[in-house]
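Lay summary. Proteins are chains of building blocks that fold into shapes, and those shapes determine what they do. In this project we predict the shape from the chain. Here is one chain we studied, written as its sequence of building blocks.
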Amino acid sequence: MIASVSGKIVQIDTDSVVVDVGGIGFRILLPSPARDHLHVGEVAFLYTQLIVRQDALTLYGFETSEGCDFFNLLLSVDGVGPRTALSVLSTLTPDAIRRAVFREQSEIFSRVPGVGKKTSQKILLYLQDRIKAVSGLEPVAMMSDTDAEVLAALTALGYSVVEAQAALQSIPRDIPQDDVEARLRIAIQYFGS
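And here is the predicted shape, written in a compact code that computers can read:
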């Protein structure tokens, strides 16, 4: 198994990078947030997972060992393959995944491209016993219905779940919890700043 790769980035494509390691170029598929942090010419260290199929050997890479661990957890879910797991990690951070699991919000996973309602429920059920709490992300109360509406509106406008959650967290506490329009307006202003 290839557990990690360290080398110079020689090419960045829409879904992968090519890393030169001792004259050999490894194509590594990455979640989009990780790919966005890399630049041609810089040296990068990536945790990797090699997936062996009958017709291909494919390397998937991650900036952190936690990302790689979540990728492997997602692969264990019935009906989730490497591309879907990568799509989940391109859309949701490990902390966002934890929050969705702790709050039992399977709809968060169904907003990931390629993940339907049944698969999102499978992901939630599988991860419930396998994800451990970390400081600040222990199981908490459910998101209010108002904030769920704001989150749904933001994702409908094209923002990722991660971006929408960041915008929700930026809403001042003095804005009434039951005023969807005001909370949405302030959340949208977050993207303009």
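What the prediction tells us: Residues 97 and 124 are 9 Å apart (CA to CA).
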